[in-house]
Specification:
This protein has 155 residues and is of the alpha+beta class. It has five helices and seven strands, in the order E-H-H-H-E-E-E-H-E-H-E-E. A hairpin with a 4-residue loop joins strand 6 and strand 7.
Length: 155
Amino acid sequence: MQVVLREIHDSDLPVFYRQMNDPEALRMAAFTAENPADRDAFDALWKRIRSKEVARTILADGDVVGSAAVYGVPGEREVTYWVDRAYWGRGVATAALRALITEVPERPLYARAAADNGGSRRVLEKCGFQMSAQAKGFANARGQEIDEVVLTLQH
């Protein structure tokens, strides 16, 4: 499967919205928007992301399968990605994240994941991120505070 990143097109947003409202994906991601179904908030978020951040659409064999971004202030920038559940476990997130961190050479980069999200942790570790901290945070998708891990990419 060929995985590439490209600039986000307006036509990608409805796909992202659908993906980010998948109940199983929301639970796994845990740290999501307070109300993912709020389309106005979703549109406002993506308008901000597209104007200020490095944000890309993930394509797998030409199909829109997710998004990847680097956001935040220099020295504290974080990576984030979202891959359609139909593509989990197929190397898409790893390939997309590798491409993203190649495109954004600044270091360190950080990532956060729910402590029980083993798939996301494996993706990050395959891309060179190392566990640097543990924390607790309120997970909107689960309606409670949960354990999270912070990973850092130094080189």
